[in-house]
Every structure is written in structure tokens, then in C-alpha cells.
Amino acid sequence: MGNVAKHTIGVLVDNEAGVLARVIGLFSGRGYNIESLTVAEVDVEKELSRITVVTSGTPMVIEQIKAQLSRLVPVHKVSDLTTDGPSVERELALIKVAGSGEQRVESLRIADIFRARVVDSTSESFVFEMTGSTDKLNAFISLMIPLGLTDVSRTGVVAISRGPNPL
Amino acid sequence: MNQDRMIGSEIVLKALCDQGVEVIFGYPGGAVLPIYDALFQQKELRHILVRHEQAAVHAAEGYARSTGKVGVVLVTSGPGATNAVTGLTDALMDSVPIVCLTGQVPTHLIGNDAFQEADTTGITRPCTKHNYLVRDTDKLARTVHEAFYVARTGRPGPVVVDLPKDILMESGPYFGPTNVEHKTYKPTVKGDADAIRQAVALIGSAKRPLIYYGGGVVNSGSAACQLLTQFVEMTGFPCTSTLMGLGAFPASHPQFLGMVGMHGTCESNWAMHGCDVMINIGARFDDRVTGRLDAFSPGSKKIHIDIDPSSINKNIEVDHAIIGDVAHVLEDMIKFWKAAQARPDKKALKDWWAQIEEWRARDCLRFNQSGKLIKPQYAIQRLYELTKDRETFITTEVGQHQMWAAQYYKFEKPYHWMTSGGLGTMGYGLPAAMGVQVAHPKALVVDIAGEASILMNIQEMSTLAQYRLPVKVFIINNEYMGMVRQWQELMHGGRYSESYSAALPDFVKLAESFGGVGLRATKPEEVDPVIEEMLAADAPVIVDVRVDPAENCFPMIPSGAPHNEMLFGPEDTQATISDEGMVLV
Question: Which residues of chain A carry a pLDDT beneath 70?
């Protein structure tokens, strides 16, 4: 059967009503796993949206996921960014930490090490903005837990292939 | 391009006419009244009024599968659309081209829980090949044409077009069906030449080959069926069919081993298990065929021809995949085969056939018609013998009778066998037969039914009466949901929980009350005369054949077992079913 591995899949779709529901319904209906999913319009003129899905499965399941996605009528292109050559992955998070005194200073110090930006500040809280790999975000968030982490909002992974060629 | 302006409902009907549609199966309601009004004022399209929307879809399926055309359904919003869902799912599973037009509340009411509102595109998204909600009359004509294009090309399937009432009443431009090419949807028709060459080379090295074909051959068209016959004959290989493929290759042909799978023949299943090269043509390694996956045909190299890339490596990993339309791929395969040098070892092939003949000699479909009770197999065998020289179309419901029909009715031609294979929809056969009869008014159309299944869409007897459709319903009445009981016997200690058909109607009187003819056979010697009487009647007929209630369907590969562990008869029913097998359906 092969081993379960994580894959990042880029999907270019027509930006029409219901297209996201088709993709999500395919994953839930066929029992595939979604670790993260992001979607936004990327070409206003051609009305194209790009979906990035992080999923996991055996090689046979990943092949099925790609074939099933390609079969959807409004799908233009499907690419497995994990296997189709090198790619860059990024995720953005907004992280709220509340506290005072030494904890508050410590959170700011760690944010500086991680190159997180402060986008909101009150006398008892910070909101940090941070971009990076999922692992980097996880590391930062876990460091914030003892310092008064109260809220996290993450975009999920977006990815693009390295080099000059489009999806 | 034609730039006529007309109102939405007229655009819909004009588009149907331009798509070559002759018949619509439907049921009216508030949201589709504009289309029914337009229908009233024209003469080109015939409308068949069914008695339940599920039946409209099955009728359209019967029409489509017996003609190769797209079947068309028209239903109203809300309950009209939700009633159609079973039929749509059935058509999706069996790859039947259907365009289903559903009414919808006007656009400004969508989302307001309006009367007879349902989220039709949301509900039907997973049970259609594609669906549309038309929000602009300007896009209506193009959408209907595109729906037909998507339904019939590639792997065929059902397409829903949801039509809000205001869109049907506003005026918009009409466009003809030209240039419907889609910007993203482009099915692969022609197979990759290198892949076909490699497959042909592998076939040339085979010692124990087997051709396994399915409904994809029938869907590809009669040319594909002829090419299949040509390929089987030129190679001299044995071949076996799935339930859906029956008729693509003549059943009387000596190279045909019968149906494969759970209730397939011993020679087919053992050849599947023992072959060294398997050539799958338009079949999808369904679980009814493969049995236990990790023990499926363990020693074979597998070639898979399919138009749907997602069928490849879904259940079974194959060695050579060819994506394309069966007719195109077979044409190339035959060409390359003629040019190729490699031929299977004659001695090995002869030995393989000798082995198959030994299995065939076991005569696994034999049954013993003795005593006072009619054996169900006997009833179907007599039906076959007495109807084989006519133009006969067979539909079925779902259960034991369906498997017996597949085993004992021999199909020589494609498009003459309509059964619910993938979804297994009880209640399919009668409305499907109705659709077949509409398409072939002069032909003999028989629904081989069970007494339980037939009651699921029995209301369509009324439709048969209204349109004088002389469909014959041949009920194998064993007073049980036979297949349920068979599994209860095999796996649940014979505890027949809720599988007895209590309080059955008198089917003879039932037929009469619908204006048809009712007949009954209770003894073996009554079977032939009753069939003759049925054939002589120019009216809808229900034949109530009272059969041996204890008979079960064999051979059988129990759930979770490999092909070489078949049960051949009641003496085998004490076989142990594995824990893994118990959870399977």
C-alpha cells in the first residue's frame, strides 16, 4: 500500500459559485484528509481562483485525489507541489498574547527573534503577525502558550513552484 | 450565430430540440409551469408523464441505455428535485447520460426557505457528473447545450440544470449548439500510442490471458462492441463480462466464459484468479468483481483501458494504464496486434483453454427442476428460450432475480440489458422498462422483477396504461427479499429479520386494476403457457411466478473471500465468513 505522506496540491479553478463546495465535498465524500485549505481569486480577468490543499495519504490515495480533482468540470489544472519539483510554502498567522510585566516583555523578545511583527498593541496585549513555514509558526505559537496566548488565526499553507514556470 | 430572442422556457425547449431530443420524462409543478406551458404549445417534443420523479430518471436511463442517446428529465423544484436524487445517483454509478432539468424558486427567493425550495445544486453535487444553477437568461441556451455535451462525452453521467422560475419567464438570446467546447472539460478519447504498443507486447507474451470487459464497451458504442468481438476472435483468448458489460460480446460465443464476480461463473472467476495477463476493457475493478483485494488475481500483469483516469489504480494497481475511449483504443490495439511479431505461445494457450474447459465442465449454473415447485432459474431460462428469437429488451429490479437474470438470460447484442449495477436500486426495472418501451414501441420489453422490488415503483403501472406501453413485468415471487434472506442465512444464523414479504397484493388483480393483464404460474408446467399468454397480450402484463421460496443464488463468492473460494450450492452455506468479510456489503 505504501506509506502515508503529506502532500501540498495546487488547484487552478474557474471562480464560479459552488466550486469550493465541489472540492471540499470531494474530500469529505471520499474520506480524504484536509490538513489545510486556502482559496482566493488569482486572475480577475480570466476569473480564476487558486486552491492550495495540504493533504496526506498513501501514493495510491494521492494519485486518486489528483485524478478526482482533475475530473471536476471547473478545474483547469492540478499540480502536486510536493512531487512535481521544488516549491516554496508559506503560511501567515495572527497571534494574540495577553499579559503584563516580564511575560509581556518576553513575548516581544521572542517575537523579535522569530521576526514576527506587532500589528496591534494595548496595555495588556499584543497581536503578532508572522509569516513562515508551518513548523516555524507552530514553534512560535507553542512558545507563546506560557506567555499568555489567547487567540490564533492562521491562513493555512499557500505554495508555489520554484523557477520560471506557472502551475 | 443565431441571435433570436425568446423567453427562457422557449429557449429551453428550442435547445432540447436542437440537441435531437424527442422525448422528455417528467412531472409538473409550480416552478416549471412556464416550461409545461411552452410544451403545450409545441409538437416536436413528446412528454411522458410519470407518477413519481424517481421513475422519470429511471425511465430516462432505460431510454438512454437502449438507444445510446441522452435521456432527458423534467421535474419541479423542492420535492420534484429531491425525488429525482436516487435516479441521478443510479445514473452516476452506472455512467448513464442524463440531462435533468429541475425547477427552482425565483432567484430573489433563493435562500429564503420559500415554498418548495431545496438547495438542488447543493444536494445533487455529489450525485451528478456536473450541475448548474442558471442565474441569467442570457446564459441559459449555452448552459443547456453544455449540459448535453458534459453528459454524453467522456465517461457519461447525469447533469442537472437548475432553472429558477424568473429565468424561465424573462427573455434572452438563443444560441445554437455549435461551439460548445468547454474551456476546462476535455476528455481524452485517443489512447497513448506507446502505452498501447507496450500493452500489445505484454499480450503477445501471455500464457494464460483473460479479457475482462465492462459497461465502458457498451457506452463506447456498437463499433466498440464489434471491435471487442474482433479482438477476442483474433487473439483466441477467453473473455468474461461484468454485470454491466453483458451483451457487448455474444453470450453464445465459445470464447465467452459467462459473467465474472460475486455471482459469476466458476470458469470466469477461476480464470480471473489464475490468469497471467488480464486485459480490462472498460470495467472498473468494482468490489463485486474483485472480492478480497489482496488476493485478487495474484499472479497477473494487468492492463486497464478506461476513459476515466480516476478509475485507474483506484482499487487495483495495474501495470499498464491506457486512458481513452474503448473504440479508439481497441482500433489501435488491433492495428498494432496485426503488425506485431509476438504471439502467445500456442501450446500454453491450448493448455490454458484445456484448464478452462475442465472448470466449465463443472457446469456451475446447473439446477434441478424437479418436484412441484417452480425453480426461479427455470422460470428465467424458459423466458429466455421463448423470447430469444424476438427483439427483446430485459430490465431488472435488484436482488436474487437480478443475478438469475444475468446468469440465465443470454445476451447476444449490446443495449438490450438494463440493470442497476452500481447503486443497486430496487424499483429501477419497471420505470426503466417504460423508458425502453417508449424508445422501442414495437419491441418486447420485459422487467424481470422480485415481489419486493416491484412494489417500490409499482405506481408506474398507471403510466404504462396511459401511454399504452405493453411492458411485461415478470415477477419471480419467492415471498422474501431473497438476497437479504440469503445473506442472513449465510452470515446471521438464519435469523430472517424483516426480510419476509408479508401482506403482498394479489398481483393479478393489481395488474387488472391498472388496466393491464394479470397472470400467475404456480406449477412448473404452467410456466410455458403463462409466458406464451404474456407474449400474446398487447397490453401491460404482470406475471406472478410463484417460485421455490428457499432457493438461493449460486455460485457465490462470499464477502471478503478471494475468487478461488466460491460457494457452489446449499451444501456450501456453512462456509465460515471472516470477520473482515462480515463488515462488507
Answer: 1
pLDDT tens digits along A9-24? 999 999 999 999 999 9
Minimum CA–CA partner of B309 in chain A: A67
A20, A27, A71, A76: best to mutate for the B interface, most B CBs within 10 A: A71
Q: Which residues of chain A have a CB within 8 Å of the CB of B130?
A: 73
The helix/strand/coil state of B420 is: coil
Q: Which of A133-137, B79-83, B511-515, B570-574 is predicted with the least confidence, judged by mean pLDDT?
A: B570-574
Pairing of strands A125-132, B71-75: unpaired
Shortest alpha-carbon distance between residue B159 and chain A (Å): 11
**A vs B: CB pairs below 8 A:** 39
- Nearest C-alpha neighbor of B551 from the set B473, B480, B452: B480
For B125, the closest of A18, A60, A76 (CB atoms) is A18
- Split at pLDDT 50, 70, 90, the class of B181 is confident
CATH 3.20.190.10 fits A88-159, yes or no: no
What superfamily would CATH give domain A5-80?
Answer: ACT domain (3.30.70.260)
Distance from the A9 Cα atom to the nearest Cα atom in chain B, whole angstroms: 16
Helices (H), B68-100: 79-93
CB spacing of A63 vs B182 below 8 angstroms: no
Cell of B566: 466460491
Query: For residue B584, what is its C-alpha cell?
Result: 462488507
Of residues A21, A60, A70, nearest to B313 (C-beta): A60
Nearest to B418, CA basis, from B402, B399, B394, B398: B394
Is there a common fold for A5-80 and A88-159? yes
The three three-digit cell numbers of residue B201, written as one number: 507486447
Q: What pLDDT score was predicted for residue B556? A: 95
Query: Has residue B462 got a pLDDT over 80?
Result: yes
Average model confidence (pLDDT) for chain B?
A: 96
Binned at pLDDT 50, 70 and 90, residue B92 comes out as very high
Q: Where are the domains of chain A?
A: 5-80, 88-159
Mean pLDDT of the region B507-522: 98
pLDDT of B1? 47
Q: Measured between beta carbons, which residues in chain B are less than 8 angstroms from residue A25?
A: 125-126
Chain B partners within 8 Å of A21 (Cβ):
122, 125
CB contact under 8 A, A74 and B184: yes
The alpha-carbon gap from A113 to the nearest alpha carbon of chain B, in Å, equals 46
Q: Which residues of B touch A65 (CB under 8 A)?
A: none
CB B155 within 8 A of CB B312: no
Closest CA to A10 of A74, A46, A55, A43: A55
Catalytic residues of B: 53, 115-116, 165, 483
Query: How distant, in Å, are the alpha carbons of A108, B123, B471, B544 from that of B111?
Result: 47, 14, 42, 48
| Mean pLDDT of the B217-238 span | 97
pLDDT (average), residues B14-24: 98
Write the CA distances from A50 to A35, A37, A75, A159, B187, integer angstroms.
Answer: 17, 10, 10, 10, 22
Q: Which residue type is seen at B341?
A: Q
